[in-house]
Write a structure and sequence with these properties.
This protein is mostly helical. It has helices at 19-34, 55-66, 89-101, 112-122, 148-156, 204-214, 230-240, 263-268, 275-280, 285-293, 308-314, 329-342, 345-360, 365-375, 400-406, 411-423, 430-444, 448-460, 468-475, 477-491, and strands at 6-9, 38-41, 105-108, 162-165, 172-177, 181-186, 194-196, 219-223, 246-250, 253-254, 325-326. Strands 3-4-7 form a 3-stranded antiparallel β-sheet. α7 links the parallel β8 (219-223) and β9. The chain starts with 5 loop residues before the first strand and ends with a helix.
RNA sequence: GCCGCGUUCGUCUAGGGGUUUAGGACGCCGCCCUUUCACGGCGGUAACACGGGUUCAAAUCCCGUACGCGGUACCA
């Protein structure tokens, strides 16, 4: 592998960055880091009609959140600035002129309505979508059908025009995709792609090729939806006299049912699609990254839990899967729990703080960490800690089903007795509180379960949670006794 | 329609001619641990789309069919 690897992630600021985009960015990042190369971020903002103001900030925030730092790009700058296509107009113009001069591109004056009319006229059941190409261009209004004087007259008059690529017929365009191997197309299938739009902006195809070349991009790693446009790009590289970069087309991420993972589609299934949603729902960035990396790739052995650095270490494009991968929220959540638990206690505490405080008000760090120590194995999300609000404040009510099942006629009595004995338990440790309860059970001739379940209910309000005595110790003796007595009063 | 790319358990996938009674993970089920719920451990469920070929031998190679996805824009 060349040691001057340069890859880029080139999103369009048309909305919130979605997980498919993040995975593309991730693979590019991994490839760059794996080969000691450079990761470039380029904003492809050539479509003014779809431009969304907040999108760029969201892209930057999302990448930063995921830990995918880039080496060149917006705000950061770099030797190939600017990194916004909207600011690289002169460059595109120069190469468009070159293509026109060499006869590989031509001016076209057809209005959208005229093109639609052509499609309508030529449409047949066998060919429902006629294109502007070698078979139709000679009946349109362009520099190939109009004489030079007329073309110049229209240009001078300020008529709207586009510049189209003059695609040759019957040539084979082939290339070796890094993940799929040899792929070939017949150029007869490709249309005379617009290169320069009537608003003066380049289309994706032109801008992409010009930028990838001028930014010295060595490897293009992007979604499979771009595979069909490779022949256009190959032709452009050839006409411009440039060497095309290596290319890798990644399989798509599919919805849980195998369809397209569109926003609408995903919403219906309760699957978030933008990175921002995952962030807001409390997914750990390490987990999302790990999960996304495995949607279409694996290291070839049986390891599954990876940090970003470990992914860098193990990554290779060649191991990319060839088929689309369905999104599986269950697995993501499992991975989230795994990553969460692997974090240091204090880090989990900080990640849980917001949710906990939203529920019970300000909490001291020591208290928060004690709670994490108790609940860690039970957390899928850091925010789940807030479900154990009883660790921070006395329960206000008692789980109905739990009371039905666990609170017996003698429960209030036993709970009061336990509270009384705890008064004398100076140590108040896991061992001592348990010993006190066992002794009580023996003295009262009651089963251990006859006491512990009501005690749990009385002190936490619920029937599930961490070890009972560990929990009591975290609550402290005063709170424990207070809660026991109050519950005995309330539940009778 | 045409072009392209795909197709191994429900899902993510390993495996790329004999090592395979097709392996792992999530999910699901059962058991163990246990005061509960988790965690963890153990076990179970479950797949090579179909049809032809090539070969002594095919999940693995070739062809076809079916199905899925992508593309077919002055969107990216």
């Amino acid at each position: 592998m060349a040691d001057n690897v340069r890859v880029r992630f080139a999103p369009s600021p048309t909305g919130l960055l979605h997980i498919g985009g993040l995975r593309t960015a991730l693979y590019n990042y991994l490839f760059a880091r794996r080969h000691g190369g450079t990761f470039v971020l380029r904003i492809e903002d050539t479509d003014r009609s779809r431009y969304v103001e907040e999108a760029e900030a969201d892209i930057l925030d999302s990448l930063a959140w995921a830990g995918l730092d880039f080496d060149e790009g917006p705000e950061k700058g770099g030797p190939h600035a600017p990194y916004y296509q909207s600011e690289r107009g002169d460059l595109y113009k120069r190469y468009v002129d070159q293509l026109i001069a060499s006869g590989d591109a031509y001016y076209a004056f057809d209005t959208p309505a005229e093109i639609d009319a052509m499609r309508e006229r030529l449409k047949t059941p066998d060919n429902p979508t006629p294109t502007y190409d070698a078979s139709t261009r000679m009946e349109m209004a362009n520099a190939l059908t109009l004489d030079a004087v007329e073309v110049q007259r229209r240009l001078d008059a300020g008529d709207e025009f586009v510049v189209r690529l003059k695609v040759p017929r019957g040539r084979s365009a082939r290339f070796e995709d890094l993940v799929r191997g040899w792929v070939s197309f017949d150029t007869s299938e490709v249309d005379d792609q617009v290169l320069l739009k009537s608003d003066g902006m380049p289309t994706y195809h032109l801008a992409n090729v010009v930028d990838d070349h001028t930014m010295d991009i060595t490897h293009v790693i992007r979604g499979e939806e771009w595979l069909p446009s490779v022949p256009k790009h190959l032709l452009l590289y050839e006409f411009l006299g440039w060497e095309p970069p290596a290319m890798a087309h990644l399989p798509l991420i599919l919805s849980p049912t195998g369809g397209k993972l569109s926003k609408r589609n995903a919403d219906k299934m309760g699957i978030p699609v933008s990175v921002k949603d995952y962030r807001e729902e409390g997914y750990e960035p390490e987990a999302l990254v790990n999960f996304l990396a495995f949607l279409g790739w694996n290291p070839g052995d049986e390891r599954e839990l990876f940090s970003l650095d470990e992914l860098v270490e193990a990554y290779s494009v060649e191991r990319t899967a060839h088929s689309g991968a369905q999104f599986d929220l269950d697995k993501l959540q499992w991975i989230n729990g795994q990553h969460l638990r692997a974090l240091p206690m204090s880090e989990i505490a900080e990640r849980a703080r917001e949710a906990v405080e939203a529920r019970v008000g300000p909490v001291e760090t020591g208290q928060l960490e004690a709670a994490v120590g108790l609940m860690r194995e039970r957390l899928t999300f850091a925010r789940d800690l807030a479900d154990a609000a009883y660790l921070f404040e006395d329960p206000t009510d008692f789980e109905e089903a739990g009371v039905q099942k666990r609170w017996k006629d003698d429960s209030a009595h036993l709970v009061r007795l336990y509270a009384d004995r705890l008064e004398a338990d100076v140590a108040f440790t896991v061992e001592s509180t348990e010993a006190v309860m066992r002794q009580l059970a023996e003295d009262e001739g009651a089963g251990f379960g006859r006491i512990i379940h009501p005690v749990r209910l009385a002190t936490t309000g619920v029937t599930v949670g961490a070890g009972m005595f560990e929990t009591l110790v975290v609550l402290g003796r005063d709170a424990t006794i207070r809660r026991l007595r109050r519950a005995a009063d309330v539940l009778g």
